[in-house]
Every structure is written in structure tokens, then in C-alpha cells.
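note to self: dont lose this again. the chain is below, predicted strucutre after it. 456 aa total, dont forget to put it in the shared folder this time
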Amino acid sequence: MTKYDYDLITIGAGSGGVRASRLAGKYGAKVAVIEESRYGGTCVIRGCVPKKLLVIGSHFAQHFEDAVGFGWSVQSATHDWGAMIAAKDKELDRLEAIYRRMLRDSGATLIDGRGKLADAHTVEVNGKAMTAEKILVAVGGWPTIPDFPGKEHVISSNEALDLPKRPQRVVIVGGGYIAVEFAGIFNALGSEVTLIIRSAHVLRGFDEDVRATLAEELEKNGIKFRRDCQIRSIEKTDAGYSVMFDMGEEIIADCVMYATGRAPNTSGIGLKEAGVKLNAKGAVQVDEWNRSSVENIFAVGDVTDRVNLTPVAINEGRVFAETFFNKNPMTLDYTNIASAVFSQPTVATVGLTETEARKKHKVRLFISRFRPMKHTLSGRDERTMMKLVVDRETDKVLGCHMVGDDAPEIMQGLAIALKCGATKAQFDATVGIHPTAAEEFVTMRDPVPEKAEPEA
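---
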């Protein structure tokens, strides 16, 4: 029998790789984890955590404004961007230390460096070769920026989290969740923000009512939109960065951020050479067991480009470890996975959009739009939107969607209901908590008037 140095070598110490490695070690496997950057991966170091800390910090600007309507007098409030970034960095250092400690406590060997596959069982790092019975690729994704004149002047979300000072004039290119989240951060803290999108609304792939509602609220908050256009070139001038559009218009900015997508971080780590098949986007192709085209090489997380969410990567790591190191075979169910966008206001959703549902079901729609109680006194012109998509024949709730304060917190509970196959009648039979926004999901009684069903 062939003897390997390790039972498992994991390349990448992000959410999925860490969970898989910790559990495998707990179940008795000899594990090595290789990481070329910082432990914690995109979520902890360059994504979810630092971004949400900045979102929370930016919210205080509105809180101070809204407090006046409740009798508070808030004077001379100022914001120190540098202090916020320093506090964020301190928290990331703390979290990274925890991730390292958890891996060590599980018995894993931590190796700092860039891991590269030499063959199906061998990984090279820092000039040294090591072997494993199984190899797990969990290297995540990385921001992509298209080639165009002036590309060297732009930043991605990575650099946006570490800016030494807040730019006063910001252009953000893209309409996805990263773009709208950073637009909200900069705008709330006082920057002039222009959002460049190629379509009419933001958040392609989300429910159309969500997209329209969020775009309207972002514009009410002062974010400027440039729709149906693209940047032709960028030049650095004494006045700032000159941004030229394809229609010949020009605007001047202090910072140009591209949030036009992310790609699997698979380049240059020996995957193709080891026989691992990648798709057109460079993602590792895997089966339901997270196995690649090479029998002993597996992949989890954003590198597979399935559902690119941190909790998904964590659960993919969990089922991998259970299956191959705990004799407990399991796969992950990808239906009804809830997600959130920490825009201002927030967005949360679970299940099918109206468009998706209509492809396979006859549907009833329930929509509620209202002014949150808080803003009856604050005076802020902000509306909340909630939507249920229901199968007309079975009464099963197919999708829940919300734009408004606390949407992610509310949606987590609804995700459980959808996972259990809840019906609209069961929603209706649930007594709401009053006065809350959440109760609206169990008090919507009148469906939206039906439109003619599109022909198949």
C-alpha cells in the first residue's frame, strides 16, 4: 500500500478549506493546510466581515440624522475613516489568529506559501514536495477587471477595504451585490457616488421587484446612476481621474472602483497539469461529492463557481469531511439557500424569483410596500418591500423577498420555513409579532391581481 505524507492536503485556508480540514483532523486524519495569503480567506479578510464592519460604521450617519425626529440633538458628529479602517484591521488580525489556532487545535500542520500540484498526489510549496492520499482545492475566487485603456488606475473591492482615506468622488462600475454595498458605504459617509451599470437595474438575477425597489431607494439616498453605458478609458489628471464613457461623456473622480465580477483563483496552481478539468470560467468541475475529474482531488467553495456564498463553502467542507473521513456519506442540498445583500437598505431573499417560478409553476404573488415605523418620526423617505411567490396549485411558498431594514435577520427564519415546505396557509395561520416589519410576511392576504400567463 502506498504511503503518503498526509491523509489530506488542503490548498487554501478560507471558509470551506478550514471547515473541511478541522473536521478531517478531528476525525483522525493527518492534515496539512497550505495558504499563501492570510488565514480566513475572502470572507474574513477581503469580503463579508470587513465589508459589513464598514457597512455598520456607515449606518451611524443615518442614525444621527434620524435621531432628530425622536427629540435627540446630535451636534458636531464627524467621521474618521482612518480610525475605522484601523479598528477593522485589528479585528481581522484577531479573527485570523483564531482561525490559525482552531486549525492547530485540530492537529493540522499549517504551511505558509503557494501550493502547486505536481501530480495527482503531490503538492509543491516553498520548494518542497509533499504527498497526500486526498487533495482538497479551496482557493476561492478573485476580483476580475476587464482590459481597457487606464485599467491601472482602478481598484477592486480588495483595495477599497484598505483605502488610507475616503475619496470624495467615487465611481463604481458594476451592479452586483459588491457594487451596491460599497456604493452605500461611501455614500452614507459623505462621498459623491456614481454607479455605472450596463442595464436598467442593479442585482441581475434577483427578483425584478427587488431590483426596481433597491434602485429607487439608492437614488433617493443620493447615489447617481449611469445606465446602459460602459467606460471607454480612464486618465489621471491634476483634477482627478478622467472617466470617459462610450458615448463621449466625461466625469472626474477621485477613485474608480470596478466590481464587475469574480473568477475562480485557479491560475498557476497546476490543476490542468494534474488532469483536473476546469470549465470555461476556470472553475473546478466537481460532482455531487465535490470530486473533480481526478479521483482523489476535490474542490469546495467559490473555486467551483456553484453557489458562491460563505455558508455554502462551509457546508461543502463539512459534507466532504463527513463523507471521506467519518464514514458518513452526505451531499449538500442547494435548494432554497437564503442570501443577503448589505446594501442600504438591505436585501434578502430565499427560494425562487417570480421569473424563475413562472417557468415551472402557476403562481400567486403577494406584495407589501410600506413606510417603516421608524421613519414616521424620522421623516426619512424610505419604503420597505416584501414579496411572496406562491404555487397556485399546491399553495407552497416558492420564494420570499425583501428590501428594507433587518431583511437578512428576518429572512433567516423564513429560510427554515421554506426548507420545511411551508404553505401560504401556514404563513397565514402564524400569529405575527407586533409591531414589527417581519409580521407583514404572515399578514399578506390579498394576492396581486393575476396577469395573463405567458405562453410556453
